Amino acid sequence: MVFIIYTNFESLKNDCENCQKCALGATRTNCVFGVGNPNAKILFVGEAPGENEDKQGEPFVGRAGKLLDLYLNGIGLDRNKNIYIANILKCRPPENRDPLPAEQDACIDWLRNQVRIMRPSIIVCLGRIAACKLISPNYKVTQEHGIFFDKNGTLMMGTFHPAALLRDPRRKADALEDFLHLQEKIKELGISI
Ligand code: URA
After folding, report:
1. What distance in Å separates the CA atoms of residue 65 and residue 169, rounded to the nearest whole number?
2. CA 184/CA 75 separation, integer angstroms
3. How far away, in angstroms, is 74 Cα from ligand 1 center?
């Protein structure tokens, strides 16, 4: 087995774009590595690319992404400036089904390497799949959203997936509170944005 230590996003991205570790490598249009500032201290992690993301090669570019940008911009965050956005899976699952555990396991090292290079102070998990993979397998978004967990020195918070907010707008106020809580935490930690 070859174990590569990546020191920059360019070589990591290049290898990720050629990944065939699971069957999704054969059906993707684009590998969706991530978007944003790799020097940012705040990382957002979603689930997997959808149809639009697969076509354009960028995470969260569809309706859910537009909603995410509203929440981000509302607290002074901007995907093109002071954060990074990635997903648990880099390739689109067919028909937008949930990522299979085996696909998540095959893909997770790309994200682990992104985290190793970035060393973010805060990771925000967008939805159940990301929170269960990164915070705790038993994570419940409805009960634990907005709470910061210290995982080996990195603060991790889960909140509602923006696609879930489109399906159930009654959760939008809770999501706004989570983003305001995030804004407070950014200030408290003295992270310059
Ligand atoms: N949903 C996600 O979780 N990620 C995307 O990139 C798009 C939609």
Report:
1. 15
2. 10
3. 20
Return the residue matching tokens 């915070």.
135
Tokens 């509203």 belong to residue: 70
Q: What is the pTM of this model?
A: 0.97
**pLDDT higher than 90, residue 4:** no
Tell whether ligand 1 has an atom less than 6 A from the beta carbon of residue 47: yes
87 lines ligand 1 (CB under 6 A): yes
Ligand 1 pocket member 53 (CB < 6 A): yes
Predicted confidence band of residue 2 (pLDDT cuts 50, 70, 90): confident
Domain ranges of the chain: 9-185
Q: What is the pLDDT of residue 96?
A: 87
Please give the structure tokens belonging to residue 6.
Answer: 């990546």
> What's residue 1's pLDDT?
66
pLDDT tens digit sequence for 37-81: 999 999 999 999 999 999 999 999 999 999 999 999 999 999 999
* Domain 9-185 in CATH 3.40.50.12780: no
